[in-house]
């Protein structure tokens, strides 16, 4: 399992120009039982970081050259993937899914995370092209327990890679999947007979396994690219970070000839604790490389306290920065929400309260944001 992922990593590293941050190319992996790319000899990370540190004390010319070097992006292919005017939609349907192959499955979270989330790379051979922000459907093998004799139904998963995939060749898609487990409310014990079918199938799959996929689907979370200098405020809980990983790789990691991002991307990520953070190393590296274009705020509900002494949720972070967020929205920023359905009521209450404190009507503001296509929600 790990070696296949490393294979992807090595192949990706071979594509990278000299001076690029090779360590960025895989997910940031945690946990004892999984391969950790940080422990492998990797091009770029310590080199560019140390150089940046040293260069603070050296002359400006040297400093600039180091910054240039650490900002090198990764070449992608085939660039024809940029040519379509519209994203593909439902190329493969539940009755005739595409049979793809699992490349790798890696645990993303550390030992203290409640639950398990995996990064799953799927080889679609370039046959199921998608755009950042779209989803794939997965049909788990077996019979639908609610309809004996019929196959299992499709489950949707946001794609966590760019259209070029983690190996930058347009042949793979990555998913960020949380294993659904069931705890008996009376005993508090896990009941494996009621565990989630598809998420467990995906998290337990092995390199080479076949997986039936449908899609791609969804347009609401597409990254609007008409203005490369736009502001994108991205709010996620848990696996809701998936589409944003794709956006951010496109903005900061890949060398896409027709898309040069010069705006602001601001990610708010809510998870339980620091071991539950997803792709943290990738995001932290963008902060170091693109401090003017990227902001990253984390809400760790079980580790941090909000201003009232309660648990820190994403809406508390939103409140902390509400003045800036409202100004950015007034200036045309896009705002995205992705993750569990339960995140929305708390966020909407906070935004409404803040709007009222500012003497604005939230209902009016929200309908304006929707009308302007600035408001993007995908919760499940
Ligand atoms: P299911 O088998 O469908 O079960 C659902 C839940 O019911 C589970 O929690 C299970 O434990 C519980 N359950 C099973 N049997 C019983 C019973 N007898 N009594 C009570 N409870 C029971 N998920 C991600 O992880 N990552 C993503 O990026 C992602 N993106 C999504 C994007 C969209 C647009 C949508 C709509 C959903 C997305 N999801 C994502 C959610 C995903 O589609 C699945 O719903 C999720 O993985 C659970 O599916 P499952 O087959 O594992 O669980």
Structural write-up:
With about 375 residues, this protein is an alpha/beta fold. It folds into two domains: about 75-215, Translation factors (Elongation Factor Tu (Ef-tu), domain 3, Beta Barrel), CATH 2.40.30; about 225-380, Rossmann fold. It has ten helices and 13 strands. It has helices spanning about 1-15, 45-55, 60-70, 195-205, 240-255, 280-290, 315-320, 320-330, 345-355, 360-370, and strands at about 75, 100-105, 115-125, 135-140, 155-160, 170-180, 210-215, 230-235, 255, 265-270, 295-300, 335-340, 375-380. It has a six-stranded antiparallel sheet. A five-stranded parallel sheet has the order 11-10-8-12-13, with helices on both faces. A two-stranded parallel ribbon has the order 1-9. Helix 6 (about 280-290) links the parallel strand 10 (about 265-270) and strand 11 (about 295-300). Helix 2 (about 45-55) packs antiparallel against helix 3 (about 60-70) and helix 7 (about 315-320) runs parallel beside helix 9. The longest helix is centred in the C-terminal third of the chain and has 15 residues, at about 345-355. The chain is globular. The model is unreliable at about 1-25 and about 30-70 (pLDDT under 50). The structure holds flavin-adenine dinucleotide. It is found in: Plastid, Chloroplast. One of its GO terms (biological process) is photosynthesis. GO terms for molecular function: ferredoxin-NADP+ reductase activity. Its cofactor is FAD. One of its GO terms (cellular component) is chloroplast thylakoid membrane protein complex.
């Amino acid at each position: 399992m790990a070696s296949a992922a490393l294979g992807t990593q090595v192949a990706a590293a071979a594509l990278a120009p000299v001076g690029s941050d090779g360590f960025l190319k895989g997910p940031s992996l945690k946990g004892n039982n999984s391969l950790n790319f940080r422990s492998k000899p990797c091009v770029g990370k310590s080199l560019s970081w140390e150089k940046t540190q040293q260069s603070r004390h050296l002359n400006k010319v040297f400093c600039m050259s180091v910054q240039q070097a650490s900002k090198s992006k990764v070449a992608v292919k085939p660039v024809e993937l940029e040519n379509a005017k519209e994203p593909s939609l439902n190329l493969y349907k539940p009755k005739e899914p595409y049979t793809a192959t699992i490349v790798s499955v890696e645990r993303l979270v550390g030992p203290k995370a409640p639950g398990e989330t995996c990064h799953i790379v799927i080889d679609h051979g370039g046959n199921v092209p998608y755009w950042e922000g779209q989803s794939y459907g997965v049909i788990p093998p077996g019979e639908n327990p609610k309809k004996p004799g019929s196959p299992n139904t499709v489950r949707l998963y946001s794609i966590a890679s760019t259209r070029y995939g983690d190996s930058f060749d347009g042949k793979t898609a990555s998913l960020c999947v949380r294993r659904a487990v069931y705890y008996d409310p009376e005993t508090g014990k896990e009941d494996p007979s009621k565990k989630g079918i598809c998420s467990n199938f995906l998290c337990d799959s092995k390199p080479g396994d076949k997986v039936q996929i449908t899609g791609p689907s969804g347009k609401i979370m597409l990254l609007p690219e008409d203005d490369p200098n736009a502001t994108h405020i991205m709010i996620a809980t848990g696996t809701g970070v998936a589409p944003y990983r794709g956006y951010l790789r496109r903005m900061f990691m890949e060398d896409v000839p027709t898309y040069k991002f010069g705006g602001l991307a601001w990610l708010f990520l809510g998870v339980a604790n620091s071991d539950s953070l997803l792709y943290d190393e990738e995001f932290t590296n963008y902060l170091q490389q693109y401090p003017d274009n990227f902001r990253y705020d984390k809400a760790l509900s079980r580790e941090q306290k909000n201003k009232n002494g309660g648990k820190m949720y994403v809406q508390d972070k939103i409140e902390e920065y509400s003045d800036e967020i409202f100004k950015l929205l007034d200036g045309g920023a896009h705002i995205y929400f992705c993750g569990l359905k339960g995140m929305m009521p708390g966020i909407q209450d906070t935004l409404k309260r803040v709007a009222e404190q500012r003497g604005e009507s939230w209902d009016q503001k929200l309908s304006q944001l929707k009308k302007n296509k600035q408001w993007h929600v995908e919760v499940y």
